[in-house]
């Protein structure tokens, strides 16, 4: 398994190179890499013990592939496969597929490594590949959005790198376990970098513009698995050092509530999904010990929703409410919305129940409010008018690749529902159904009639840098107080 793990980490970078040499095989190679990762994740779940590797010495690479990482790797594999299938019949070039494979590989490496230097390298490669995919259309807007993402990410990683060096100075190791002996300022700097990369709390306000302005398949990858490369290390730190667990959980609650408040009042479909990504990342951090399953569920459903949003006739909820969408599109939109709202028979139900059961008492009110806000915001999709399709042209930009990709993601949500089958008790079923019903009532009676526009100035580029500084001050205070 050790040799297989090293080969699996190196393979995407080799395939990304081969894609440029043999461009005619770009789609096949990209899909093959995604399927290989899915097969590897299956092996991880069936292995009797986690894979642990330490190459070289304390300066070297430390890897840990356990079931927690397995959920994140499987998310990466399924979303990448869906995106490749979605793009199969489009004129995207080998450059796109090559970068998608490299992005896939760098995210896998970030999920597997448990030392700060290897993680730094993986996150930097990830940032460059993501920038090239965001700016792929080569329009002025896409290039600016890509540069904005790259600059914000690089500034955050400078903080992270200084923190990693301070960890080594204190423990003579770059391993995650070194944070136990690290000074508070090291933890604050590392967390600053990871919070920005993971799109957590106000540090994640770069995310709505980046995810909403990217092309649909890129948004699906960014929201499905890219941001989680910054979230898993935070989860691991919370599990390794008990004193950090309350801080991570607090960020989880704050992120879940902040994101869902914006999502409830957002009038643009893709921006609403982007704000909801922030909120759902909070659910992963709120209960770190079960965050893997929630990450899988969220990655699948959010990728499906971004792909569907990409073929809707408009991004504006107001226009969608005035002009009925095709019923087949509405059906898959409702299926995905049901899952993220926590409706039974889809994996969002089990993931939410499992998360709620692992909260500590002070988190319960905030996370229940976030769950209610989720039901309110996705009622916007569920109650859209729809009509029967008379002619294929009425489906707009939809092609066979779209249906295959969305079917793969929705079926995966149904299958993943079996991961926590113990959730199906009468009490567990009644509570989310009541939350969803209350959310729909609040939407129909209040939110739908309101015309509230929340300020966007915190998303401006210069404000993002300011918020990063404020967050660093807060982290210093939080870590010193622990």
What is the strand and helix layout of this fold?
Elements: H1 2-21, H2 26-46, E1 51-54, E2 62-65, H3 67-87, H4 94-112, H5 116-134, H6 140-171, H7 184-198, H8 207-213, H9 216-226, H10 228-240, H11 245-265, H12 269-286, H13 291-309, H14 317-322, E3 325-326, H15 327-341, H16 347-357, H17 364-382, E4 386-387, H18 400-416, H19 426-445, H20 461-481
Parallel strand pairs: 3-4
Antiparallel strand pairs: 1-2
Kindly describe this structure.
A hairpin with a 7-residue loop joins strand 1 (51-54) and strand 2. The chain has helices at 2-21, 26-46, 67-87, 94-112, 116-134, 140-171, 184-198, 207-213, 216-226, 228-240, 245-265, 269-286, 291-309, 317-322, 327-341, 347-357, 364-382, 400-416, 426-445, 461-481, and strands at 51-54, 62-65, 325-326, 386-387. It is an all-alpha fold and 482 residues long. Helix 3 (67-87) runs antiparallel to helix 9 (216-226) and helix 8 crosses helix 12 (269-286). The longest helix is centred in the first third of the chain and has 32 residues, at 140-171. The strands form two sheets. Strands 1-2 form a two-stranded antiparallel sheet. It contains 20 helices and four strands.
């Amino acid at each position: 398994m050790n040799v297989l793990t090293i080969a699996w980490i190196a393979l995407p970078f080799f395939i990304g190179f081969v894609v440029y040499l043999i461009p005619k095989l770009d789609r096949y190679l990209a899909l093959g890499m995604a399927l290989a990762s899915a097969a590897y994740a299956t092996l991880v779940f069936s292995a009797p013990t986690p894979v642990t590797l330490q190459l070289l010495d304390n300066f070297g690479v430390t890897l840990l592939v356990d079931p927690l990482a397995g959920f994140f790797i499987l998310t990466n594999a399924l979303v990448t496969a869906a995106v490749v299938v979605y793009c199969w019949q489009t004129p995207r070039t080998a450059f796109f597929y090559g970068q998608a494979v490299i992005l896939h590989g760098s995210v896998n490496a970030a999920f597997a490594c448990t030392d700060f230097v290897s993680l730094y390298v993986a996150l930097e490669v990830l940032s460059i590949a993501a920038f090239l995919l965001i700016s792929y259309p080569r329009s002025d807007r896409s290039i600016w959005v890509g540069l904005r993402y790259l600059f914000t990410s690089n500034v955050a990683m400078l903080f992270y790198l200084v923190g990693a060096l301070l960890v080594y100075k204190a423990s003579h190791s770059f391993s995650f376990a070194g944070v136990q002996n690290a000074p508070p300022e090291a933890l604050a700097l590392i967390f600053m970098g990871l919070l920005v990369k993971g799109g957590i709390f106000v540090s994640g306000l770069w995310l709505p513009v980046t995810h909403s302005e990217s092309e649909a398949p890129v948004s699906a990858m960014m929201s499905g698995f890219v941001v989680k490369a910054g979230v898993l290390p935070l989860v691991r730190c919370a599990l390794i050092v008990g004193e950090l667990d309350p801080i991570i959980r607090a960020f989880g609650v704050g992120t879940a509530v902040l994101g869902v408040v914006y999502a409830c009042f957002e009038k643009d479909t893709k921006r609403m999904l982007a704000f909801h990504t922030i909120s759902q990342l909070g659910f992963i951090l709120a209960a770190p010990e079960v965050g893997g399953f929630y990450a899988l569920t969220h990655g699948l459903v959010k990728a499906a929703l971004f792909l569907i949003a990409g073929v809707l006739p408009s991004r504006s909820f107001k226009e969608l409410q005035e002009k009925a969408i095709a019923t087949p599109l509405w059906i898959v939109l409702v299926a995905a919305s049901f899952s993220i709202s926590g409706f039974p028979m889809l994996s969002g139900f089990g993931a939410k129940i499992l998360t709620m059961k692992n909260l500590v008492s002070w988190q319960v009110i905030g996370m229940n409010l976030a769950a209610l806000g989720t039901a309110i915001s996705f009622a916007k999709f569920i109650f859209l008018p729809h009509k029967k399709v008379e002619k294929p042209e009425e489906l707009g930009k939809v092609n066979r690749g779209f249906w295959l990709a969305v079917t793969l993601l929705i079926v995966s949500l149904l299958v993943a529902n079996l991961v926590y089958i113990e959730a199906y008790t009468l009490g567990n079923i009644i509570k989310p159904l009541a939350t969803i019903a209350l959310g729909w009532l609040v939407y129909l009676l209040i939110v739908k009639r309101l015309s509230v526009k929340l300020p966007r100035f915190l998303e401006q580029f210069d404000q993002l840098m300011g918020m990063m500084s404020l967050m660093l001050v807060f982290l210093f205070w939080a870590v010193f107080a622990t």
